[in-house]
Design brief:
alpha/beta, 16% strand, globular
Length: 206
């Protein structure tokens, strides 16, 4: 399935790729959500949800609240619904939705979460403006995103650096930003958000 603005394959193959990313990022994402402090009664919106791994973690933390997960990919939304049902997560609602559209849901959310979404959008500022319109007073926007320039490899591998080159060019070719991470604080300020905090995470593997 081809998803507008999204350079990586979606559908079932995309779900399995996201499952790997979820395992890699689980410790730091969980630590971030804990540090922010998702209340048990929180109303949460998880955008660009893919397979729903973060959505289910939010549902666990907001056990007396509710979580809406939206994504453009119908296949992954269907899989996420099945996995949520299997996990017994009764406070989760997965929907097809586009963050570039101004309307996502009729009520405000205490928490809006976006992981690896803004890098795939030609106009992340517009998406943020739309999403901030759904924040309740005192609500919090949680984002994790990438800076592809942070890659390293020892020893040198021509294939590895070719991968970095190709991915960077592919994302930029769609008018998106593979190195959006350092821009995030400025985007938050432009969207009218305050109390901005930044943490840098560098995954590494052998």
């Amino acid at each position: 399935m081809t998803i507008p603005h999204y350079v990586i394959r979606g559908g079932m193959e995309g779900r399995e790729r996201l499952r790997v990313i979820a395992r890699v990022m689980a410790p730091t994402t969980s630590a971030l959500l804990t540090r922010v402090g998702v209340e048990p009664t929180a109303r949460c919106l998880d955008v660009g949800r893919g397979g729903g791994d973060v959505t289910l973690e939010l549902a666990r933390l907001a056990s007396e609240g509710s979580v809406v997960g939206i994504d453009l990919d119908e296949t992954k939304i269907g899989l996420a619904r099945e996995e949520a049902a299997a996990a017994g997560a009764g406070n989760v609602d997965f929907r097809i939705g586009d963050v570039m559209e101004p309307s996502v849901d009729g009520h405000p959310f205490d928490v809006v979460c976006a992981r690896f979404l803004l890098t795939h959008l030609p106009d992340p500022g517009k998406a943020l403006a739309n999403l901030c319109g759904h924040l309740a007073p005192g609500g919090v926007f949680i984002a994790e995103d990438i800076d592809f320039t942070g890659h390293f490899c020892e020893p040198h591998s021509a294939a590895f650096w070719r991968y970095v080159e190709l991915y960077t060019a592919s994302v930029q070719g769609r008018g998106c930003d593979p190195n959006i991470g350092p821009r995030l604080p400025g985007l938050w300020r432009a969207a009218g958000l305050g109390g901005i905090g930044v943490t840098v995470v560098q995954p590494a593997g052998i």
